[in-house]
Design brief:
The chain is an alpha/beta fold. It is built from seven helices and eight strands, in the order E-H-E-H-E-H-E-H-E-E-H-E-H-E-H.
């Protein structure tokens, strides 16, 4: 079963971030998920521009930058100029007056454009943007904090996206409360990647490499 695993770095140990990046990379992580929060679009502050820049300098693995900020178009260049071609940048459509303009800037910079869909966001309201983006990050919890409970009605939204993803040429990624049961259920159906946080990866006794190996060996 071919699927991608990305590490939610807001859950990492910031007492030794360099070692965290090295251990995750050695353990076989596919990419690093960077949650940028401004305390306005979501009621929390998480990673900063400097955190993103450091992780970009510490690994050759791709970065998935999730902008949970108001009006990202105002400052999108600060992020794009510190990323590499092929990195992914997700925006929330509700956070921008004209999200397609911001997505075009991401495309022009050589990045992979993506949108993040909140649990309360309907597919119908973002349908036009699905033609533009290459990745859709489905939030299975309300954005802003790690360790939240899965909202089961999100499964119906994923089913709708799976039915149109090939026609509209985008991939689906899962973010929030991602346990082994979710990977077993949704990877075979076509969800391409999973953001791993405290549910499966961080704060456990096992080494990252062991945990990632066990996830890839799940029985489907």
């Amino acid at each position: 079963m071919d699927f991608e695993l990305t590490a939610s770095m807001m859950c990492a140990n910031y007492g030794n971030l360099e070692k965290e990046v090295q251990d995750l990379e050695a353990g076989g992580i596919d990419s690093f998920h960077i949650d940028i929060m401004d305390g306005r679009y979501v009621p929390n502050y998480a990673m900063s521009l400097n955190d993103m820049k450091y992780i970009a300098s510490a690994t050759k693995k791709p970065l998935d930058v999730h902008l949970m900020i108001e009006h990202p178009n105002n400052n999108i260049s600060l992020f794009l100029e510190n990323l590499r071609k092929g990195d992914t940048v997700y925006i929330h459509p509700e956070a921008e007056y004209h999200p397609s303009t911001t997505l075009q800037k991401i495309i022009n910079a050589g990045m992979i454009p993506g949108i993040a869909i909140n649990p309360g966001t309907s597919i119908e309201t973002v349908m036009e943007m699905l033609v533009i983006v290459k990745k859709v990050l489905v939030m299975s919890v309300n954005p802003g904090n790690a360790g939240q409970m899965y909202l089961p009605y999100v499964g119906k939204k994923i089913t709708k996206l799976l039915a149109i993803k090939d026609e509209m040429h985008f991939e689906i990624y899962w973010d929030g409360a991602c346990g082994a049961d979710k990977i077993i259920q949704y990877a075979p159906r076509g969800v391409r990647g999973f953001v791993l946080g405290t549910t499966l990866l961080f704060g456990k006794d096992a080494a990252y490499g062991e945990t990632l190996h066990n996830i890839r060996e799940l029985h489907f």
